[in-house]
Every structure is written in C-alpha cells, then in structure tokens.
C-alpha cells in the first residue's frame, strides 16, 4: 500500500512537468523556446516520514511532574528553664520577747523569666518557714525563706532571729528621744503631762497581748506603738517618770475576769486619773472620745455616760492616796 501511494504521488508530479516540456522543448523557432538549452528538472521524492515529532498532550493517565514546594522553617526549640529564682532582702532579725516581727518586710525575689513573687495569695510563690521561732522566750532561732518559679525551680535562704528581753537602758533611751520631741523647757508640769498624754493616746494603737513586765510593755509602746492597757500604762509611766512628774499605777478592783490598769498623776495640786488607753467609739462618752481621760476626778469617772468607762475604773481606794 505504501508503495502504491508513492507511485501515485510520483505520477501526479510528472504530469505538469510533461506539459511544461511540450511547451518549451521544441526547435529554436518555437515561440517561447530556448535555443540549445534544455531545462533540467530535479526530481524530489517527498518523504512520508515526518522530520519533527510533536509534543504529545498529556492524558489523564500521565503522572504529573511534581512541583517544588516551600520548605517549612524549622521550629525553634526552647531550652528548658533550669535557673532558680534569687531571694533578695533576707537578713538577720532582732526582736524582743513577746514583741512583733515583720518577716516579709523588704524581702522579695527575682527570676530570669520576669515572674512576680509575692507572699500573698492562695498559692504564694514566696514564703517563709518560721515554725522554729518562740517569741515568748529569749534565744536565737533560724527561719528559711523559699521561692519557686513557674518552671518548678526553687531556692531558699536561711537567716537568724535573735529574740531578747528589752533592757531598762533601751527603754529609757527611747523615752528620752520622745520627750526631746514633745516637751520644751518653758512648759508647766500640767502642760508636760498633757503633752505626754497626747503622744501616747494618739501614737499607740490598741491590740490585745499578754505580758505584765513594765519595761517590756513600755518598750512595745515606744518602739512598736501597739499594745493593750498594760502597754498604754507602762509607756505613760516611763515618760512621766523621765519628765519628773509623780505618778502611780492603779488597777481595777474587783477584776471580774476583765482586768484594767491606768495611771495616777500629781502635777502639784493632788492626784488625778490619767488613762491614755484608746476606747472604742461605741463604748466611750463624747468627752472621753474627744479629750481622753486626762486628769479626771473620781467623781467625773462615776458620772461618765459610758457604762464601760464606769465599770472599768472601779478600784480599792484604800490602796492609794486621796484622789481628787
């Protein structure tokens, strides 16, 4: 079949050549002829084999060429936090027997994470173990501060607490400092007594505590500014004594399971009641709230509109000099 097609194409090629030869291959007289020149015809046999292979269209069964994809950036791996917090401000503490101690003052912690540390809250990350301290007994005790960050790293610092009894010299030195601020040389005895009354009444805050030692109680009033009626009376006593004002202690009688103590003073015209204790607004009359029980007579105490004041200032008169 291929041979037959080739022959047919060749015959179709020769037909125009044949007629061309008839027209131009006569003698030299033939119009349009060429004297002595015969045309040369080059026979070219067309090839049925294509010289260019077309790119085939892809089909559904062809495997697609994979395209390059973006390589994801590597994920940074954080190194574990193994650095413990640093406790700062922890130092040895000195306190007095039955006194108060501020264990957390000026103590904090820092951490490389920037975390905030606090002694407060339900689960504090900063705390102090003070279980070894016996504030009612002189001695040296150890306390330990602990800190823990969010990664679980912990640190601790141990310091000492020195508990000692207040000495008379310490108390008298504190009293001299206070008197130097509130008294002047030109004051009368009564004016000095009033200045002492105002200082104790307005600077010492009421808080129940146990302890009957005069020096110890005076120390709490002058140094810690806190305590019960024993502290108010002892603080007043040491200041009055250092100022040269005669004074005495006077106690409630009968006690009836509710003791009370206050002072008597004599500025030159007899003995008067001198009670610097701060009374609750709901239990004191107006004069006691506004001016305090400063140099009251016994009759004035009995006339108080406050049952608490009247009941707390009953006493055995036979134990004391005549009171105005």
What does the secondary structure layout of this molecule look like, with pairings?
Blueprint: H1 2-24, E1 86-88, E2 93-96, E3 108-110, E4 126-129, E5 139-148, E6 154-164, H2 168-182, H3 189-203, E7 205-206, H4 214-224, E8 226-227, H5 229-242, E9 247-251, E10 261-266, E11 271-275, H6 286-290, E12 293-296, H7 298-302, H8 307-312
Parallel strand pairs: 2-6, 7-8
Antiparallel strand pairs: 1-3, 4-5, 5-6, 9-10, 10-11, 11-12
Helix pairs in contact: 2-4, 3-5, 4-5
Short description:
This protein is an alpha+beta fold and 324 residues long. The protein is built from 8 helices and 12 strands. The chain folds into 3 domains: 1-42; 86-164, Immunoglobulin-like (Sandwich), CATH 2.60.40; 168-319, C8orf32 fold, CATH 3.10.620.
Account of the protein in words:
The chain has 324 residues and is α+β, with helices and mostly antiparallel strands. It folds into 3 domains: 42 residues; 79 residues, Immunoglobulin-like; 152 residues, C8orf32 fold. It has a 4-stranded mixed β-sheet, with no helix packed on it. A hairpin with a 4-residue loop joins strand 10 and strand 11. Helix 3 runs antiparallel to helix 5 and helix 4 packs across helix 5. It is elongated and about 120 Å long. About 10% of the residues have low confidence.
């Amino acid at each position: 079949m291929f041979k037959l097609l080739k022959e047919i194409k060749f015959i179709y090629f020769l037909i125009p050549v044949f007629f061309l030869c008839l027209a131009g291959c006569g003698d030299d007289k033939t119009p349009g002829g060429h004297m002595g020149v015969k045309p040369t015809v080059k026979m070219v046999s067309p090839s049925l084999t294509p010289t260019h292979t077309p790119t085939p269209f892809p089909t559904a069964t062809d495997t697609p060429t994979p395209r390059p994809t973006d390589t994801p950036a590597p994920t940074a791996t954080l190194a574990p936090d193994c650095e413990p917090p640093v406790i700062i401000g922890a130092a040895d503490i000195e306190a007095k027997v039955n006194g108060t101690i501020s264990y957390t003052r000026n103590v904090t912690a820092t951490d490389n994470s920037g975390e905030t540390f606090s002694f407060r809250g339900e689960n504090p990350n900063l705390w102090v173990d003070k279980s070894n301290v016996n504030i009612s007994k002189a001695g040296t005790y150890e306390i330990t501060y602990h800190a823990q960050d969010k990664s679980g790293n912990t640190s601790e610092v141990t310091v000492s607490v020195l508990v000692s009894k207040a000495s008379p010299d310490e108390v008298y030195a504190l009293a001299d400092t206070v008197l130097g601020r509130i008294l002047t040389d030109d004051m009368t005895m009564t004016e000095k007594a009033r200045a002492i009354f105002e200082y104790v009444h307005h600077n010492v805050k009421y808080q129940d505590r146990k302890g009957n030692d005069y020096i110890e109680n005076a120390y709490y009033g002058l140094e810690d500014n806190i305590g019960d009626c024993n502290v108010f009376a002892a603080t007043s006593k040491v200041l009055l004594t250092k100022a040269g004002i005669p004074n005495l202690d006077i106690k409630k009688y009968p006690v009836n399971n509710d003791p009370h103590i206050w002072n008597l003073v004599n500025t030159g015209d007899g003995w008067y009641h001198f009670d610097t204790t701060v009374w609750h607004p709901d239990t004191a009359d107006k004069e006691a709230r506004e001016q305090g029980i400063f140099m009251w007579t016994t009759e004035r105490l009995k006339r108080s509109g406050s049952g608490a004041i009247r009941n707390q200032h009953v006493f055995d008169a036979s134990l004391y000099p005549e009171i105005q």
